[in-house]
């Protein structure tokens, strides 16, 4: 490979490391071209699977700042799955393919700049995919919203019952006050102990008239 081609290859690999959310290093010794094609179809849009040269990949990984744990595994026939989509889906595809095609060996990987061992990649494949998690989240949100809607719908009837209870309590309080006033009664017209009753007769008018002349006579004699 000419120098210019090597520079271009390193630049492309560096860009892939930097733009990918993860990368899985494999050894494909003994796999046919048809099998590699099948693996690429299995990965679909989640990842691109490329056969790489170890020396150039080490340079590209170093320039991209990829951990040395991955570069140390660059021995033998190497191919890398650069993951652009769901990392879990890509890990599932590689795991399932390796089970039916044992010649594909998962050697390690990197996810968000952190190294992954083969066992960790398999565990990653056992997780639920992004689509499944989103579906579960949407379902949980739907249930929560339904509960909130039911709560809001119940508020008017609850408020009506509360207002009715308050009105009944206020009416009862008003009736109780009127009863107390009725017990006291209106202001009494009964005279006090020192006041004469209006229906009792006053002094005898004739007696008063008879006493006047006598009083006048006594006055003239004096």
CATH domain fold name of the largest domain: Alpha-Beta Plaits
- Helix % is 55-70%
- Can you list the strand order of the major beta sheet? 2-3-1-4-5
- Broad CATH class of the largest domain: Alpha Beta
Name of the CATH superfamily of the largest domain: Ribosomal protein L10, N-terminal RNA-binding domain
Query: Which spans of ≥5 residues are poorly predicted at pLDDT below 50?
Result: 179-190, 204-222
- What class would the helix/strand composition place it in? alpha+beta
Assembly level = single chain
Task: Give the topology string: H per helix, E per strand.
Answer: HEHEHHEHEEHHH
Mean pLDDT: 76
Over the alpha carbons, how many angstroms does the gyration radius reach? Answer: 53 Å
First-last Cα distance = 169 Å
Total beta-strand segments: 5
Please give the count of helices.
8
Beta content: 5-15%
Shape: elongated
What CATH architecture of the largest domain do you see?
2-Layer Sandwich
Please outline the major beta sheet.
5 strands, antiparallel
């Amino acid at each position: 490979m000419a120098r210019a081609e090597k520079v271009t290859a390193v630049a492309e690999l560096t860009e892939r490391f930097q733009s990918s959310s993860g990368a899985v290093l494999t050894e494909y010794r003994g796999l046919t071209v048809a099998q590699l094609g099948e693996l690429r179809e299995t990965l679909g849009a989640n990842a691109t699977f490329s056969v790489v040269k170890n020396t150039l990949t080490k340079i590209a990984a170093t320039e991209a700042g990829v951990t040395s744990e991955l570069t140390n595994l660059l021995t033998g026939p190497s191919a890398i799955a650069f993951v652009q989509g769901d990392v879990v889906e890509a890990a599932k595809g590689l795991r399932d393919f390796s089970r039916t095609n044992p010649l594909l060996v998962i050697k390690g990987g990197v996810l968000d700049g952190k190294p992954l061992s083969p066992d960790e990649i398999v565990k990653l494949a056992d997780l639920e995919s992004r689509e499944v998690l989103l579906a579960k989240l949407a379902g949980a949100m739907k249930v929560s919203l339904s509960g909130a809607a039911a709560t809001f719908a119940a508020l008017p009837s609850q408020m009506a019952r509360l207002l009715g209870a308050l009105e009944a309590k206020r009416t009862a309080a008003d009736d109780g006050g009127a009863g107390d006033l009725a017990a006291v009664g209106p202001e009494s017209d009964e005279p006090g102990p020192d006041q004469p009753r209006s229906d009792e007769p006053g002094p005898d008018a004739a007696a008063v008239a008879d006493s006047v002349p006598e009083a006048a006579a006594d006055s003239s004699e004096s």
